[in-house]
Amino acid sequence: MLKVFIFFFITSNSLLFAQNLDNQIQLNIIEDIKLFHSPPEPLFNGRPFELSLVTELSESIIHSTLLFFKTDSMESFREINLKGKSGLYKFKINTKDFPGNSIEYFFAVKTNDGKIYGAPVNDQNLLDPIKKVFLDPVKYYEQKQRLNQ
Fold first, then answer.
1. Which of 28, 62, 76, 129 is most exposed, with the fewest beta carbons within 10 Å of its own?
2. What is the rounded distance in angstroms from the CA atom of residue 44 to the CA atom of residue 66?
């Protein structure tokens, strides 16, 4: 009986460890391919904003370009298929349609050969979603005015 318990204990712990490793998404690396994104600053409560991605990939090899985002009031990421022109892909988010106090997002580009590239990534080439807090525009500009005096 003790051997059976030890077997199940070891098996369940190894499964938990494996699941934790699977939560990080490793992306393909090609030195010549670049995805560029500059987060908009600042993001205001109740005001729409645009998230954009620029890539050097030819449109002929891109299968899809996706934006994944969620606000703090959403349980899971929403997937948006981006349409682009000349390497520029963008999507306008209206905070009235997606309420919350903050947003988390990342981009993914899938090529025709099945490879997936993402942005932003960290130094280990792991996906590192951007997290931004929505600001009150009145308080933001009042504070900015005080600092400029």
1. 76
2. 23
User: Is 119 domain-assigned?
Assistant: yes
User: Into how many domains does the chain fold?
Assistant: 1
- Does residue 3 belong to any structural domain of this protein? no
Q: How many CB atoms lie within 10 A of CB 62?
A: 17
pLDDT in tens, 35-81: 889 999 999 998 999 999 999 888 889 999 999 999 999 999 999 99
Say which residues have a Cβ less than 8 Å from residue 105's Cβ, sequence separation at least 6: 51, 67, 68, 69, 70, 129, 130
pLDDT bin (cut points 50, 70, 90) of residue 28 is low
Residue numbers of the domain that contains 123: 35-148
Taking the alpha carbons at both ends of the chain, their separation in whole angstroms is 76
Q: What ranges in the chain are assigned the alpha helix state H?
A: 2-22, 137-148
**What CATH number is associated with residue 66?**
2.60.40.10
Does some domain include residue 22?
no
Average pLDDT, the chain: 80
